[in-house]
Automatic annotation (TrEMBL):
Record's keyword terms, sorted: Membrane, Transmembrane, Transmembrane helix
Protein name as catalogued: Acid-resistance membrane protein
Residues passing through the membrane, by range: 20-39, 45-67, 74-91, 97-122, 134-157, 163-181
One of the Pfam families matching this protein, by short name: DUF308
Length: 190
């Protein structure tokens, strides 16, 4: 996302106060995410499960009252989504472990693909030409790091959960600081 500064325009006072307030909340939440990583991931999955539950209910209702041709598909999908949401809400830590394991497996495949692409001298993007020697070495190193990280996540899923929470915390911290600085400076961004 690209932001451009609006030259010479100061934001209204209430907008600046809102930016500072939301930025401060984001900073506090980021610190909580970094200090309590498992709780952060469990809370995130619980919120996602609540959204899934609402989506499942909406699919069932729409399947009964709105859709005529795909009625069974909508109702069936809604029931499956509700079951998944209830399972995640009932076992949030288990769901977090499962997601961490899936992420570890995906990271491992990505790392192996990067290593193979670097060793064979093949670009990972179809539009690129043959990569340079430095790019190939970087691809192998990045792939090896991805495989090592995936092994750590698969061996210790709690490590994966904590890593996700720390990344969420750092993202919130950067966002919060950016909002506070924008609110203090008073310069609008579009």
């Amino acid at each position: 996302m690209r932001t451009t500064r609006i030259a010479g325009v100061k934001s209204p006072t209430w907008v600046r106060a809102l930016q500072i307030g939301i930025g401060a909340i984001a900073i506090v939440l980021s610190l909580a995410a970094i200090i309590y990583p498992v709780l952060t991931v469990v809370a995130t999955l619980t919120v996602a499960a609540i959204i899934l539950l609402l989506f499942g209910i909406e699919n069932i209702v729409a399947g009964i009252f709105v859709y005529k041709q795909a009625r069974a598909a909508h109702i069936g999908l809604g029931i499956l989504v509700i079951i998944l949401a209830v399972l995640v809400m009932a076992f949030p830590l288990g769901a977090a472990m499962f997601v961490a394991i899936l992420a570890g497996v995906a990271l491992m495949f990505s790392g192996f693909a990067s290593i193979v692409a670097g060793l064979m001298g093949v670009s990972e993007r179809a539009t690129d030409t043959t990569p340079s020697r430095g790019a190939r070495i970087f691809s192998v190193i990045a792939g090896a790091l991805a495989v090592a990280l995936s092994v750590m996540i698969l061996a210790f899923p709690a490590f994966g959960i904590e890593l996700v929470a720390i990344v969420i915390g750092i993202g919130l911290l950067v966002y919060g600081i950016r909002l506070v600085v924008t609110g203090i400076s008073g310069r609008g961004q579009a």
